[in-house]
Amino acid sequence: MPDSRPDRCRRPLKDRLPHPGAEYVVQFDANPKPHPEFRRVASHLGARRAEKLVVCRDASAPVGVPVRVRVVAVSRPSSSARGHIEVAYLGRAERDPYAGLYVDPFTKRRFEAHLAAGTPVLLEGPQGCGKSSLAEAAANATDMVFVRFNASAVLETTDFLATLQLAVENGATRSLWLRTEIGLALERAAVERDRRFMVFIDELNRCRELARNGIMPILDGSRVAWDPSTAAWLPVPKNMVFVAAVNIGDGFTGTTALDLAQVDRFAVIQVDYPPREAEEQILVSRFPTVAAAHIRAVTQVAATLRTDPELRLAVSVRATQEVCQVLSDERFRQANDEELAMLIRAAVCGRLRGAWDDPSTEAGVASTKITEILAETPTRRRRGG
Ligand SMILES: Nc1ncnc2c1ncn2[C@@H]1O[C@H](COP(=O)(O)OP(=O)(O)OP(=O)(O)O)[C@@H](O)[C@H]1O
Ligand SMILES: [Mg+2]
Prior knowledge:
Blueprint: H1 6-10, H2 13-16, E1 23-27, E2 29-30, E3 40-45, E4 48-56, E5 66-74, E6 84-92, H3 105-117, E7 121-125, H4 131-141, E8 144-150, E9 162-169, E10 172-179, H5 181-191, E11 196-202, H6 216-219, E12 224-227, E13 232-235, E14 240-247, H7 260-263, E15 267-270, H8 276-286, H9 292-307, H10 317-327, H11 337-349, H12 362-376
Parallel strand pairs: 4-6, 7-14, 7-15, 8-11, 11-14
Antiparallel strand pairs: 1-5, 2-3, 3-4, 5-6, 9-10, 12-13
This protein binds adenosine-5'-triphosphate and magnesium ion (MG).
Magnesium ion binds at residues 131-132, 202, 245.
């Protein structure tokens, strides 16, 4: 299928071809031609559709799985209709648990070091900056069983380990304790001593303030958990590590700030939005059919609203993804500048407080700023373009 991205069409072919020596991850198919010189073929280099067929002589290269290759030569570089890109097979691509996720390298190392030591970690950051994704990726990277628990439904201190439910048996009702994900993980970790478990308590600032005290003895030196179903203290096995996530900022209704004694039980790690270029790369690889210039405009808006010292708006990566998701839909493949602006405004202002046309609100300020930013960001596609 031809690539309809406007900025790509304008760049000369030679600038769009890969350089010999460049390395990519590709997925091969077997060449369907009989007795081929090239035993493997592929259509993409990384996330991008290649300008010519990608070919490889090495029949030992596996098909249908991600593999690493190095570009050896590009034949007929001036013809868009003929020639191929020859690559050498280097080996299978390692599955990177952090693939597709931007994490500041120092933050990643620090997080993994705390996990290795068994220290509870509090991930703190604005909405949609990757806290939950980071916790899961780190669990995979350090070979831990990942156990997710959402604290927003916690009302009582006991709710962390078990919840009281009504059961009907032979027409009679009785109450019984059902273990939560944390309660089940405690049991499992006590048996599977050779595995490590990460219990990820998401949205810790959404549970009732007093209820939060229920996990304090789990996190401090005493490492015990009150089990309401047996009315006894359970020891927390050494192979369990606790990570919690909270939103920061004053824009979160339904949240309560952790008190200092609660925070003191954690190593606090601040997580922030990816830098603009990193977010652009993430979106390009997730939405390969969206015009690069449109992705640049979306990320430019997000980065400016987040970092402008007078605004400091929490523009979630979910918002930038939402715009790209729509742009990747058939119905929006030919989106013009006005439509792009409307999509960005809807995704960003819709998540902020106030009315878009009221400049005294966050949404209104963002709306005006979006118009200004887009006026300065060329997208090379006007109405009907
Ligand atoms: N740093 C990032 N790198 C790549 N993708 C990201 C990043 N941050 C957020 N995303 C994407 O945004 C979405 C939300 O991410 P995630 O749930 O991890 O954020 P969060 O900080 O936990 O959000 P919340 O504050 O609402 O709990 C996911 O689809 C995720 O892939
Ligand atoms: Mg989260």
